[in-house]
Amino acid sequence: MRKFDEQSTLSLYEKGLITENQFEEVKAYRNLNIFSVNAELKLFLYLSVLLFTSGIGILIYENIDTIGHIAILSILLLVIAVCFYYCFKNSKGFQKAETTFEHPVLEYLVLLANILTCIFIGYLQFQYKPFGEHYGLATLVPTIVSFFCAYYFDNKSVLTIAITGLAAYIGLSVTPQDLLNGNDFYASDSLSYSAVMLGVLLIVWTIYSNRISLKTHFSLIFLTFALHIISIAAISNLLHHYVLIWLIFAGVLIGSTFYFYKVSYEFKAMSIYVFMIVYGYVGINIVIFRIFENVDFSNIWELFVFLLPAYFVASIVVFIKLIKNFHKEITE
């Protein structure tokens, strides 16, 4: 890594982008061997929030009979109120552009307050049912609170909670495991259409936000969720027994792949580019299988056995080459 940095600095000097004095100052600074622990500290803060909220959940579960529901809800509400009061007091208020707290700890207090709010509303609904049998409202309310906090305090972690809550409200689970196992897209056409519509909604909101310059740095988060939700819903339905259905979702996947191909270059987003290729590759193979599923290949199956390893090796080589070319294009 050090050698790479030195070569990069030398390249800048040779191109005339920095002066000789600046080149020497950069070399002298790097020779001090100073390194930042900012990322490590933020990671520990994030883990602290997760451990704290997990600990509260375990405490409630193990002592529910001795503490009492009212006491637990009161303590939760008090902690939430203190956290939000401190965050509102020290925030810069809502701004359309990217903003940050003066102290990074406040960012994680917002996350803590938001998670505890979700726990509070969920626990309140489970125990006392203030929303009656409308359990969707118990999901929608914390989702609205999360979106408000995400935009007001400019917090990306809270934004992911908000999008997850919105997906849960329409019946989707958007954790990686649940996306693959917990959402029965194949059995429920309405769920598949809802997933695609949610993905489109996230894309439309991203486009609108960029036009009015509203938290444009949130775009990558919205687009990442949209890519995964649309692609997985489409791929799941490529195995549908109705030809028209899987043809429709094949078209959806083609359109999604093309759009996110353009987006990956626009935002110079390696993550979107990689997953776009993976989903497209899986979809193409399923479509090819569906086209030839009724063809009898019994006479040439030995040829397929011989060509299959070569096909996968060639796919890996092409994949690596595409990634290298993309990285080269976005860094030049």
Automatic annotation (TrEMBL):
Transmembrane intervals: 43-61, 67-88, 108-128, 134-153, 158-175, 190-208, 220-238, 244-261, 273-292, 304-323
InterPro entries recorded: DUF2157
Organism: Flavobacterium fluviale
Statement: the UniProt record of this protein carries the keyword Transmembrane helix: yes
A Pfam family recorded for this sequence: DUF2157
Name of this protein: DUF2157 domain-containing protein
Highest taxon above the source species: Bacteria
Keywords: Membrane, Transmembrane, Transmembrane helix
Residue span(s) of domain DUF2157: 12-158
